[in-house]
Amino acid sequence: MGKRVAVVLAGCGVFDGSEIHEASAALVHLSRGGAEVKIFAPNIEQRDVVNHLKGSPAEEKRNVLVESARLARGNIQDLAELKASEFDAVIFPGGFGVAKNLCSWAVDGKNCTVNEHVHSTLQAFHSAKKPIGLCCISPVLAAKVFPGCEVTVGQDKNVDGRFPDAETASAITELGCKHVCKNVNESHVDKANKIVTTCAFMCKAPLHEIFDGVGTMVQEVLKLA
């Protein structure tokens, strides 16, 4: 029987929701790994809405759960209904929605607050010693909730212009966590906390490399589950 894995989304679209390619990559690798997947998102209003064609704010309101349903093909539940006891692991794809809707990192950085249902979900899986997978900007959730944990968001320096958000690593360190430098096709496993992270689009890399990197994260999560 396959592992039961919950996937938590933050909307639909890189600039104000979940990064679609990361979410899809995670779901494909989970499917290939024989996992039984259920998808969740918080039933809250998005912090903002971005016109992805123009890259500018849009004067409208959208709901995170409703938008995430686009990625889930309609098969999704309110995050408030997620019970860690029913799953073997949880995975959070990245995208600015994580830093805007699941927490306030986009505005407050290391001083951010984490959505109550996101926080309780992370705590529940951690307390049950069940693995947590995070990619792109999502590792900041673990850094905020679990001081002292180990994560990666890629490199701590903008190597060859490939890591334009390298300062995120410093903010993670300031939270009392250990940042481990990894390439886009690698993931880091914090064995003590069962937290698996990979940088994904925090690195400017070809899509197939990001897809493969997310795959290493998924594989390690399934091994720990």
Could you walk me through the main structural features you see in this protein, from its secondary elements to its overall organization?
By secondary structure, the chain is an alpha/beta fold. It has a single domain (4-224), classed as Rossmann fold (3-Layer(aba) Sandwich). Helix content is 34%, strand content 16%. Helix 1 crosses helix 8 (207-224). Strand 8, helix 7 and strand 9 (178-179) form a beta-alpha-beta unit. The model has no long low-confidence stretch (mean pLDDT 97). It contains 8 helices and 11 strands. The strands form 3 sheets. It has a 7-stranded mixed β-sheet with strand order 5-2-1-6-7-11-10.
**DSSP E strands, number:** 11
CATH fold topology: Rossmann fold
Q: So what's the overall shape?
A: globular
The share of residues in extended strands comes to 15-25%
User: Tally the helices: what do you get?
Assistant: 8
CATH architecture: 3-Layer(aba) Sandwich
CATH domain class:
Alpha Beta
**How can the largest sheet be summarized?**
7 strands, mixed
Task: Report, as a whole number of angstroms, the end-to-end distance.
Answer: 12 Å
SSE succession = EHEEEHEEHHHEHEHEEEH
| Low-pLDDT stretches | none
Secondary-structure map with pairings?
Layout: E1 4-8, H1 20-32, E2 36-41, E3 50-51, E4 56-57, H2 64-71, E5 77-78, E6 89-92, H3 96-102, H4 105-108, H5 116-127, E7 132-135, H6 139-145, E8 150-151, H7 167-174, E9 178-179, E10 188-190, E11 195-198, H8 207-224
Parallel strand pairs: 1-2, 1-6, 2-5, 6-7, 7-11, 8-9
Antiparallel strand pairs: 3-4, 10-11
Helix pairs in contact: 1-8
